[in-house]
Amino acid sequence: MEQKRIDHMTYLPDMENIGSEIQDKVINARKEYDPDKYTAADVREALNKDSLTPYDFGALLSPAAGDFLEEMAKRAMAETRKHFGNSINMFTPLYIANYCENYCIYCGFNCHNKINRAKLNEEEIEQEMKAIADTGLEEVLILTGESRKMSDVEYIGMACRLASKYFKVVGLEVYPMNTDEYKYLHECGADYVTVFQETYNSDKYETLHLEGHKRIFPYRLNAQERAIKGGMRGVGFAALLGLDDFRRDAFATGMHAYLIQKKYPHADIAFSCPRLRPIINNDKINPKDVHEPQLLQVICAYRIFMPFASITISTRECQRFRDNIIKIAATKISAGVDVGIGGHTEDGSHKGDEQFEISDGRNVEEVYNAIKEQGLQPVMSEYIYV
Amino acid sequence: MNDKLVIAGHEFNSRFILGSGKYSLELIKAAVENAGAEIITLALRRANSDTENILDYIPKGVTLLPNTSGARNAEEAVRIARLSREVGCGDFVKIEVIHDSKYLLPDNYETIKATEILAKEGFIVMPYMYPDLNAARDLVNAGAATIMPLGAPIGSNKGICTKDFIKILIEEIDLPIIVDAGIGKPSQACEAMEMGAAAVMANTAIATAGDIPAMAEAFKKAIEAGRTAYLSGMGRVIEKASASSPLTGFLQD
After folding, report:
1. A41 belongs to a structural domain
2. Which ipTM was obtained for this model?
3. Nearest CB to A265; choose among B24, B79, B99
4. Please, which pLDDT band fits residue A107 given cuts at 50, 70 and 90?
5. Which of B44, B52, B72 is nearest residue A384 as measured by Cβ atoms?
6. In this complex, is the C-beta atom of A304 within 8 Å of any C-beta atom belonging to chain B?
7. Domains and CATH numbers, chain B
8. In a 3-state reduction of DSSP, which class is residue A123?
9. In a domain? residue A264
10. pLDDT (tens digit, 9 = 90+) per residue, B43-75?
């Protein structure tokens, strides 16, 4: 018997509501965006402009722009070098827990997926961090599954304090939280917050996120704004490409970042470009119609629309794609990646299972050398806490 | 000819200030040598890495000009400058205060505040600013050693979009005016020097060139040419056509 699910558009009592100014604009922009109405002339016009409007951004994401990939890549490359020079930032994610209260049908951590669950204690987190820092990395991204019960804010804060001992830049990719909680984690040493909206289509979102806090669509969508209000220096945006119409979701992602940047011009803006990946107990999950050319199109569109934004390329993609995309548009790349719990220390065995299958298992040195071989400059950190 | 760039009593033969933040570390030395640069800027946030430190690649004898990039207000700029002195980067500091992630335009107000504090602490303060005469005068009063107005947004390579306003600064301000940001081609660097700028700073234009050391050299030559032209006294440039037979010739009839 189907159980009654909670309304995905209604905030739960403990969730801070900061209003829906940006949310409404993003949702409306997505609704009005029709990728099929653009022509080759629209794409050419967009590519000839110095600075693109949201309408032009829509053109670059349209099927019509599929014939302009080479031109888009050239323009994207010029913008990337102009804004970032030859620098490519390196980092690694550190998963400290994989307990999750949500039922997101595509994710390996979902609460009904039978995997080994684990949570690192303070000592184990420190060991992992030491091992990562020994590879030369100076930026770490702390991740948990989304369980407030098993990984509460104090627990994440403890990890941030440890991280600031070993790293110069500390990012977070954890469950969305309230402004005061972001403020607390900022005080503990975190400076960047990334939240994947997965899909900006609320109807589709509802069918994919069946249980848990994550089901509440608007609370997730407004997380970046709360993070900035809490004092975070930068925020990251992403749709999980392949869940819904990828063009519309990429458009909404760009609009979300655009509106946040407009309202908070000091905030650093970042994009991630994840595609669906196979998970434990479901190797059939795949990115559907988002093949490499489409992924490249999305990444180039982000770059040309917001040339100053950082773009991260995930180990979901293979070595060939990653080595080429850092030449064109991506400015941040992960290395020595392990998406399980406790895999960075000596024997490499996992205490808890992985979130998804990675495609590029190269260690830090290998990625470092690959960046150098492209004539680019690997940068471990370029931020000082003062 | 004894034509030196003098910043707070320090003399330099070269009028080319080179940025270092946008290209591969091993190219820095060649770029400095080919550019004949005596001053190189350095983002302190890039000098902070333990893995590969940019400081190790900068040739000895070159004056470091650490900048406060990453600072979003005067307070952060002041703290970065103090840190820079602590780690041995000297007393020169280029103030950059930016809280706009899109255009990276400097905040003149916060820049003036930071300049005042740091000048009192004995720093040689070189503020990056939006070319506004009133702000420039405030910077002079705050103790700046030079004024570094932008030609165009950082990295835009658009040339001297703010030409008329930089000319006003050159005319009115007695400190060296160093055109910073936006210069995309040697010809534009030359133009800045012809106008009477004391020096030019460039980074992206060189970093994005196919041959970085060669482009550094091209800039060096352009800057020297522009300076020589300025010192020679530029010929009059007439914008409108002029009649070849004088209109007043009838007076002689």
Report:
1. no
2. 0.74
3. B99
4. confident
5. B44
6. no
7. 5-232 (3.20.20.70)
8. helix
9. yes
10. 887 776 666 777 778 888 888 899 998 899 999
